[in-house]
Amino acid sequence: MTGANWETKPDGKPGWQQFFLAAGYNTYVSDAVERGRSGWSRFPEIYKGEPLFRTKREAWELFRFGPAGSWSGEAAQRRPFEDQQFPLEAFDQFAKQMVPRWVTNDAATQAAYDALVKRVGPCILVVHSQSGKFGYTAALNNPDLVKALIVVEPSGAPNPEKVEAARIKGVPQLVIWGDYLDRVPFWTNLLRANERWRDAVTAAGGEIEWLDLPEVGVRGNSHMLMMDHNSDEVAQLIHAWIGKQGFWDTR
């Protein structure tokens, strides 16, 4: 995916970029190496691997729009999860935002995130999915510049056996999860990895809040919860959490 995920929703409504701008934040939307405005480079001269392409079926099931076997090329025959908040009528428009991805560019991507933090910081990082691991590492590499870390459904987390959690204990963290996680086995290991990191940070004296949206009565969110119908409600929870950190008045 690209920074377009934060700018608008597939149903045409404004995204989180506008929400946080309206709330008074200086808001920057970045594209990772190889994505969106960062483009991509030739392989094997620069990128050492070939691109991968995510299918619509993979996105439908992995992003928890519907259970395994519920995908159909015909929109009327797709079977979403009950109470699904994603604008399903705009799924095909959403799929047009998907771009090629590589599994060989992590080092370049991390270097770019670190450089961005140094250029923009002090800052609050908001990251999602694959970029979760880059956000965690950017905070570990720049704990003086990252004032808070907000991680939305991260697909990875630092290994506390290899990374000293105490390095980030001064950075408050918020980790957010949507709905239907127990219905898609892919997410089980990701949850466990993030739970291990949460426990390590807590044991080191850090602050990490675990926000399970269904547990607080916010239901129906997909993996793309910044695009869901209730995404402003989720953004307001983030805004309130930032306010509790005491950086500035967010009323």
Describe this structure in words.
- It is built from eight helices and four strands.
- It is of the alpha/beta class and 251 residues long.
- The protein has a domain at 4-38 and 105-244: Rossmann fold (3-Layer(aba) Sandwich), CATH 3.40.50.1820.
- It has a four-stranded parallel beta sheet, sandwiched between helices.
- Helix 7 (186-203) links the parallel strand 3 (173-177) and strand 4 (208-212).
- Helix 5 (106-120) crosses helix 6.
- The longest helix has 18 residues, at 186-203.
- The mean pLDDT is 94.
- This is Esterase.
- It comes from Belnapia mucosa.
Kindly report the oligomeric state of this protein.
single chain
Main beta sheet: 4 strands, parallel
| CATH-defined architecture of the domain at 4-38 and 105-244 | 3-Layer(aba) Sandwich
Strand content: 5-15%
Euclidean distance between termini CA atoms: 32 Å
Structural Rg: 18 Å
Question: Topology as H/E string?
Answer: HHHHHEHEEHEH
CATH topology of the domain at 4-38 and 105-244: Rossmann fold
CATH C-level label of the domain at 4-38 and 105-244: Alpha Beta
By DSSP, the count of extended strands is 4
Which consecutive residue ranges, at least 5 long each, have pLDDT under 50? none
Structural class assignment: alpha/beta
**CATH H level of the domain at 4-38 and 105-244: which superfamily?**
Alpha/Beta hydrolase fold, catalytic domain
Order of strands in the sheet with the most strands? Answer: 1-2-3-4
Average of pLDDT: 94
Number of helices: 8
